[in-house]
Amino acid sequence: MSFEPAKALTAYHEALDSHDLQGVAGWLAPNARYVSAGLGDVSGRDAILAAMKSYFDSMPDHQAFDDAVRTVSARVAQSDWRLKATNKDTGVVTERRGTETVTFNGDGKIVTIMVEDRS
Questions:
Q1: 3-state helix, strand, coil in the chain (%, to 5)
Q2: In what order do the strands lie in the sheet with 76-86?
Q3: HSE on the CB side for 6, CA within 13 Å?
Q4: Which of 98, 113, 115 is nearest to 12 (CA)?
Q5: pLDDT in tens, 90-115
Q6: What angle do CA 17, 32, 1 make, to 5 degrees?
């Protein structure tokens, strides 16, 4: 049975979309790096989880959708996504869309998540 990056990315997104940080933790390598306009440039599983928790605490209605998920290479998958979330304190609605490129290690754990917004 071979590793399928697109299926792994979809499973990671299922945990993320349900705000299941324990499930997300299971996908991240200890030295993972996450780069996006939403969370910034965050290194390390624990720091990524803390940033995600803070984000979900302030944007509890966060909804994200994958319009497409594809395998790019043996350890890389990419998704075209969109999201909508409302800041619970300010009422400001954020709508974003873009491309996310995720690289997995040989154990199937995520080592990099690079998120690019597009207009």
A1: 30, 45, 25
A2: 40-43, 28-36, 110-117, 93-104, 76-86, 63-73
A3: 10
A4: 113
A5: 999 999 999 999 999 999 999 999 99
A6: 75
